[in-house]
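Q: I'm writing up a methods section and want to include an example of the input and output format. Could you take the sequence below and give the corresponding predicted structure tokens, formatted cleanly so I can copy it straight into the document?
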Amino acid sequence: MNKFSKVSVTLLSALAISPIFANVHTVKADNNVKYVKEKTYTLKKLTNRLAQAGYVYKLASFKSDDIKDINGKTLSSNTLKNLRKANPDFKVNRITIYSGATASQHVDLISKNHHYQVQTDYLNGAYNKNVNLKALKPIVKMELNMINKNEKQNLGVDSFNQLRKLVDNVSDKHAKKISLQSYDELKTYAKNKNETIPTLLLGQGIY
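A: Here is the clean output for your methods example:
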């Protein structure tokens, strides 16, 4: 899977988020100084959009440090072995963000037969398997270049015109549908600071 880096932005602070629980532990340092309690939120709008794509997500890694169960606990070596062997397709079940010290963001995934339910990092822990479709690789490459080379609100018209030409040249019906959706989502992303990346670009190292 291709990985791309992106300068960190304020982590989805403007997204419409709803708290699911706030009873999270307070960390104490050796000098007994208390830090701000970390709260967990579900990003409902983002969860729903990514979930609509269905079972199209793959795990980017099968290392114990990168995958946890949905409660954030380490998976057994046997479970990891079976998971790697099965390499199932996943659907997004929930996107959560931890406010406070870690400011981390996770994605909960569920396999089609519901046998596996795991949690991984939102930024690069899972990816949309459609990025590997030959017809979509030029689309993915250009979208990532557009985002990586520009500030979010400065994605130019010329770039979108070039991207649209690539989309129009896709002949496969399945790939065409995905490319059009990704194009529209990228335009929405560029216009609205509350939106996040296209579904196709999940796991490519950007928000």
